[in-house]
Amino acid sequence: MRLVIGSDHAGWSLKQHVIDHIRSLGHEVIDVGSHDDKPVDFPDIAREVARKVTSGEAERGIMVCGTGVGASIAANKMKGIRAAVCHDIHSAHQSVEHDDVNVMCIGAKIVGPWLASDLISSYLSAEFSTDEDFRRRVEKLHQMDAEG
């Protein structure tokens, strides 16, 4: 799978660990920044992550910021993105299985490297359910996205 990853300055310290883990699982990574701990605006990075996902250049995205909350809000502003903050294993896989999440956001100030690895493994191994209820609900999300 090809993934896009982005971080702001608060998530930068965890980002390389995340990249290394993704690659250890056999996936390809597109890194859209940030590339150091100098302050950046998370909406700018979230926009780049979202563009790579919606264009099809990446299948899914991961954002790392301080808490994951700002990144999730910003990514969800982009048409076609379903982003979720995931700080537990259940949410990491169920967000994909039930809600077809395509951008997972994690907080470097909330989770450490070990948990981040477990979250990513769970997120990447999950597949959107074929259950009609989940498909119907996500279709309603698509309709809401189209309506604005």
TrEMBL record:
Coiled coil: none
GO BP, sorted A to Z: carbohydrate metabolic process
Domain of life: Bacteria
Pfam families attached to this UniProt entry: LacAB_rpiB
Entry GO MF terms: intramolecular oxidoreductase activity, interconverting aldoses and ketoses
SUPFAM superfamilies (UniProt xref): Ribose/Galactose isomerase RpiB/AlsB (SSF89623)
Active site: C65, H98
Keywords assigned by UniProt, alphabetized: Isomerase
Gene3D superfamilies registered for this protein in UniProt: Sugar-phosphate isomerase, RpiB/LacA/LacB (3.40.1400.10)
InterPro entries named among the record's database cross-references: RpiB, RpiB_LacA_LacB, RpiB_LacA_LacB_sf, SPI_LacAB/RpiB
Signal peptide interval: none
UniProt keyword Isomerase, yes or no: yes
PANTHER family: RIBOSE 5-PHOSPHATE ISOMERASE, RIBOSE 5-PHOSPHATE ISOMERASE-RELATED
Family (UniProt): Belongs to the LacAB/RpiB family.
Name of the protein in its database record: Ribose 5-phosphate isomerase
